[in-house]
Every structure is written in C-alpha cells, then in structure tokens.
Request: fold
Amino acid sequence: MINIGEYNTLEVLRDTEPGLFLGDEDGNEVLLPNRYVEDVFKVGDDVEVFIYLDNDERLVAVTDEPYITRGDFAVLRCNAVNDYGAFLDWGMVKELFCPFKEQAFKMKKGGWYLVHCYLDEKTERLVASSKTNRFLDNTVLTVAEFDKVDLIVSHPSDIGMNVIVNGKHTGLIYKDNIFQEISVGDRLDGIVKKIRPGNKLDIALGEIGYRNIEPNAKKILETLEDNSGYLPLHDKSSPEAIKETLEMSKKNFKKAIGTLYKQKQITIEKEGIRLN
Reply:
C-alpha cells in the first residue's frame, strides 16, 4: 500500500519522459517527477519518498522533506488566507490547507500555529487542524507514573502549560514546575509525575525524586566552573534567586548541594557555595 502523508520505500519500476514510476508489492504505482530524480536512482532500486497530492490533485512522490507528516504535530507559518481557510508552509510546493472549521482561533497571514496533520477521508487530501486536543485521548493511557515521555508544548493555561504527551495524550506542567523558558511547539523530555482521577497527567520536566539529583548537581558544578568556582547561593537563598541563576527549584537545589557536599566536591560557606 502507498500511504499518503507518509514516507514510503518503493521500487523504481521504469524510467519515462515525465519521471520515474515507483511501485509497491501490491502493484500500486506513483510518479516521481524529474525534478526529484537523482542521478543515482536506477530501475530496481528501492527509494524512500514522501507521498501527497500535488496542485492538480494527483498522487505524487517527492524527495522533499516536509515539516510535518500525517499524524504528527508541528508549528507552521500561515502564508495566506482565503474564503475557505488558511494555507500553511510545510516545506512542500503545495501548501497545507487548514479549513476554518479546523481553526481553534482564526488564523492570520504571517502567524505561527501548532497544528495536527491528518487525512480527510472524504477528499483523500492532507489537511491541518489547530484543534489539536481532538486528536488526543486519555481514556486509555499508554504511560505510567515515572515513565519518561516526549512532550510538545501545546498551549498555556492559568495554572501552567498544557503539553502533548507521546503524541497521544494531554498533560499539564504546573507553573511551579517550570524553571526555564518554554514556548508553544517546543519539543521536550519529561516525566509522568502523577496520574490524577480521570487519567489526567501531571508532567514534570527533567526527572523526579532521587533521579533529579544527578542532573541538577551536574548543572551546579558547571555553573560554578563558569563563575570562578563560587556562587552566592545557599540553603537560605530565596527561591527566586536560585531559579534565576540555575533554573531549578530551591528544593532540588538543596538536594543537589547536599549530594555535592557529601561527595566533597563543594564547600558550603556562610554566603554561598565554593568548588573544591
């Protein structure tokens, strides 16, 4: 089967005037136009191509790499808007269409939007939707507490930042757990901190508990080295001062310097910490 909106590995069947015809094991064929044909391609070779509909609504293979593929999420720029919807730059000759009914907020030319790419079953066209939550489901979770997860920052809320978890679920990072600048569309590593009633996912950046000591301790050491071996921070410092300097909570800071002190890597002085 040749899958629209995805990378396909197909065999070069024959060389024709408009380009190479590629095929799969089921006898399906698609044209790779001359503009995408590389000198090394020969009949019988297997090549990886991306499949979509061109401006004439014909199935076509290309060697271009889109910014988003079917079933994925990405932040894309709006190039134009007409009476039917918006047209997004996804790195292809034909722009990705986002109809008005699939826009969480009305898109404007020049704006950047987090969207999901899917195949419209009626038209067989790839389209975008900024109503990303409708493609996510927490009814049956594929993650457990303390699992490492891949995150895409979705949108802010009054209590934190909503995230897409492993491309399947919705999650939330509370404001108190954000110690770095993050923006919509950022891809981050995280941990499932807690699963609340209703399969609501509390997410933390980095790692939790004892697992959080090592990376924070390493960051403190690196910051000490960058500051001539001394930082004016200690267990009585304000959480704001620690966050501004190290982008971590006071709790994690105290755990980390405790570990470093036991390892005799730092000295804790009255006004700060010093690298041994």
Summary: The domain at 73-133 is CATH 2.40.50.140 (OB fold (Dihydrolipoamide Acetyltransferase, E2P)).
